[in-house]
Structures are given as structure tokens and as C-alpha cells.
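USER: Please consider what follows.
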Amino acid sequence: MARQTWVSAEAIQSIAGSNFATFTTAKTVIPATALRTIRANTLKIGDALEFDVWGSISNIVTTPGTIVFQVMIGSSIAFTTGVIQLNATAHTNRPFHLKALLTVRAIGNGTSANTMGMGEVSGVMFTATAAQVDGVNSYTILPAPATAPTVGAGFNSTIDNVLDFFCGFSISDGGNNVAIHQYIVKSL
């Protein structure tokens, strides 16, 4: 028997995103108006959330370091891309895309709720190998996470949780920056 489902936009960024630079610790990079609260006891095992994120990244030359993207449910990292190597050619405000699918695997209190997430990131500034430059690296599409897939950190699904999108750099520099231009979360 088929289960009737609908696709619903849960969160949409409707205003310009700020440009964030000179930081390392992952932090929110979407406007407060794009945050969504997941209400207590509304998640069910098998629920899925699809993230579609478009933005721009600048990176410094030679040793730009790495970048990481994270989906946060409350204070828990529900999904992470893991560290992604940045291209050793300097880039200024070049577009990138991240698409991820998170499926609820468990629900409950404490830290017993979790999601399984997988996706891909693409952009000229990403590379699978450190020190690659333009010419060697064209437009890269990388699977995420950068490690073996596993469920994200546990969270409490019996309370309200804010759904958020974080980013962090390994090197704090004004030339390493990110801005999110389009962000949408769909409930499948």
C-alpha cells in the first residue's frame, strides 16, 4: 500500500545573506528569518529533509585550508560534510552548491533522536587533494560526508529545536569568506 506524501518547503531564505569572514569555529551563516523551529514530537522515523544551498565562497591563495558545512538541530550536528579542502588558487565570490538529504532514523528524548545524512558539494574552490590549483582542478563535485556515512549527533526530538545551517573555516582570514544566497529546506 502506498503512503501519500507531499513535498513542503519548511525553510526558505528570502533575503540577501551576509558575508562572513575571519572565523574558524563553525557558526550560523543564514539569516535569522530562514531559521525554522522543529516542534516537539513532530518528527517521525522515515521523515526526510532535503537541503538545497547556493552561495559564494572566497578563498586565499597557496594554503587556503579547509571548510566544513553542518546542519544543526538544536545544538547537535545532525549532518556534517566533514572537512573539504579548498583549492590553492585564490577565488573571489565564486558560486558553490550543497545538496543534502537527511532521514530521521530515531526519535526520542535525551540524545536518542538522530538522522542519517548524505549529499554533495560542488564548486571550483573545492578539491579532493591539498595544493591543487585551477587548471588541475576544474569544477569539482565531492560526496559528503568526506568520510564513511554515519548518523549525526543525537538530539532530543521531544522538545522544540531550531534547524540551522553552519559553516566554519580552518584558517581565519579576511580572504576566506562565505555568503549564502539561496537556502531552502524541503520536507519530503
In short: The radius of gyration is 17 Å. The chain is about 0% helix and 50% strand. The chain has one domain: 8-187. The mean pLDDT is 94.
